[in-house]
C-alpha cells in the first residue's frame, strides 16, 4: 500500500490540472486554431481530417492541434502530414521518412519532403478535409509555405477542401522587400512570384496562391492581429520552427544572413553571424554600420578563420531583414570578390533559386552598390505590393472575425454584353481566384484590412426576429457606423435621391465640427444611435462603468448637436465580440462572468437597446476594397430574410461604400425590400446578428 501512495498523490495532482494545461492565455491575439474551436467548429464537425502540421502547430495555450483534434469526438483525425524536418521539427532532410504509422496515435504520418513533396491520391483517400497549421517565418525560401502550396495543388486535383489556420508573420506584415521571383526560377524554395520578404500571414499566402490553383479554400483568421505586429507584439511564445530557427533572433536574422548560398558568404550561430574568407571584420562592420541600416548594429567578429560580423538587432520593429541581407552580400563582395554562382542551360544554381532571379548575381559580379541592387527590383516590388492588396486580411485595426474567409474555385462564365453574370465579388472575408491574366481580383473586407477576391461565406447562426404583421413584407435597415465624416454628405445625398431612410451610429469624438451633418440627417428623417465616444476597445471594455462613461460622453455630444439623446446604440465589435475578453479587468471579470455580460445587463437597466447586424458590405476590413466588391458582399448575403440590417461604415476611407450605395438600394428594391429606420420601438432588430 505504501508503494501506491506516491502514485495516488500524483494522480490527484494530475486530476487538478485542466486538460491541455493551463487555461491562462495572456496573448494579445487568438490564433486561427483558437478561433476554429471557439467560433467555427462546424467547419470540421463530422469530418475525416488530415492535418498538415509539426511541433509549431499549437494554440495560444500551447496545446497541439493534434491533441485538440484527438480529443474532439465529433472529428476523426485520419492522417498527419509533416513538412521538412518532420513532425517534431528535428528530423534532418536525409533522414526524412516518407510515411509510417504513428506509434502512439495509430494513424499514418506522411512526410512531405525529400522524394515525396506533394500528397498523393492514396495519401488523401481517407480524408475529407486537409487542415493546415504551420508557423512560417516570413521568407519566400522557407519551405513550409511551399508545402502549403503543394498541398493546395494536390487537394485541388483530388477535390478535397483545404482549411488554413492562420498564424502571425513573425517579422511583420509591413516590410515587403527583396527581388520578386521570376517564373523560370520557381523551385521548392520559391513556389510563386513573391518577394523574399512577402509580409503576409500563411492564411493570406494561401489566398494569394489560390488565385492560380482554385481549390476550395477556407482560412480561419486570427483575432486581434494587426498588419504591423511582429511576433514580440503577439504575447505568444515562439516554438522552435526548425533546427536552426530556435528563437526570434534567428527568425529575424534568417533573411539577413542566409542569402549567400554558393558564394562562400555563410551564416553561423543560427543566422546571427555572417562572414566569409578574406573579409576584414572591422572594415565589414564599418561599411554596414555606416549604411545606418535600421534597427541593427554590426559587431566585428572573426569565426573559425572567417571574417564577419555579428548582428545585434536592437529594434526589431524597424529592422528590415532583406535590405540588411542585400547590403551584407554587396559589401562582402566588395571586400573579398567572391565568385558569383551562375545558372546555365543545364540547371539553375541554388543562389539564383534563393534570389528568384539571375539578375542579383549579375549585379554583384558587376560590383554594383547595394542601392543599385535595390533599385533593380523596385518596380517589380511595387507591382507585387499592389497585387497582394487583394489577398490581405489584416489592417491596422485589430481584426475581429465574424465569419471564415472562403475562396472557392472559379466557374468560368459566358460573358454578357449588358450585365456581367460572373459570380459576384465577395462577402466579408472571402476570396475567389481571378480567371483572367494578369489577375485583377475584386476586393472587399471589414475591419481595416485589404481583402480577398470574393466568394460567399457562411452567415453566422442568427436568432430570428419577430416577423412583421404582413408576412410578405420584407424590411431592409441600412446602417452606417463611425461617422460623421466627409463621406456622410455623399451618403445622405444618395439616400435623399432614392427616398430611402437609414440609421447612423455615431462616434462621439467625431461630432465636434460636424454638427451640421447630424442636424441634416435628423431633418431628413434618418435615425441616430450611439457608437461610444472613443471606439477604443482598450478603454471601453475594461469595465461596465468604463463602457457607459464612454457611451454617455458620446451621447451627450449627439444630444447637444441634435437635441435628441439616443436610446439605441451599437457595440464596437458587435454584441458577440470576443476582443472584450482581452481588455476586461481581471480583478472584476473572468471567462464565466465577462464584462460584456455586465454591460448588457446594465444597458437593460438604463433603457438602452443595442443593434447588431446580419448583413455586411465588408468595408471594415480594408481601405482598398471596391464599390463592386461591397455590392457583391451584400448580394451574396441577402437571401429571403424578412428583416435585414446591413452594416456599412461612414469614414473618410470608405468612399467606395458611398459609391456602391445606389446599386445596393436598387438591388434591395428588386428583391422586394422596403427601407426603414431603426428605433427603440422596434427592439427585435437587436437580435438579428
Summed up:
With 689 residues, the protein is α/β, with parallel strands linked by helices.
Features:
TIM Barrel; alpha/beta; 22 helices; 689 residues; Rossmann fold; six-stranded parallel sheet; Aspartate Aminotransferase, domain 1; nine-stranded mixed sheet; 31% helix; 3 domains; single chain
Structure description:
There is one protein chain. The chain is 31% helix and 15% strand. Strands 3-4-2-1-5-6-9-14-15 form a nine-stranded mixed β-sheet, with helices on both faces. Strands 16, 17, 18, 21, 22 and 23 form a six-stranded parallel β-sheet that branches. The model is unreliable at 4-25 and 410-471 (pLDDT under 50). The longest helix is centred in the last third of the chain and has 19 residues, at 544-562. Helix 10 crosses helix 13, helix 15 runs parallel beside helix 22 and helix 21 runs parallel beside helix 22. It is an alpha/beta fold. The radius of gyration is 27 Å and the shape is globular. The protein has three domains: 32-236 and 386-406, 3-Layer(aba) Sandwich (Rossmann fold); 248-377, Alpha-Beta Complex (Aspartate Aminotransferase, domain 1), CATH 3.90.1150; 475-675, Alpha-Beta Barrel (TIM Barrel), CATH 3.20.20.
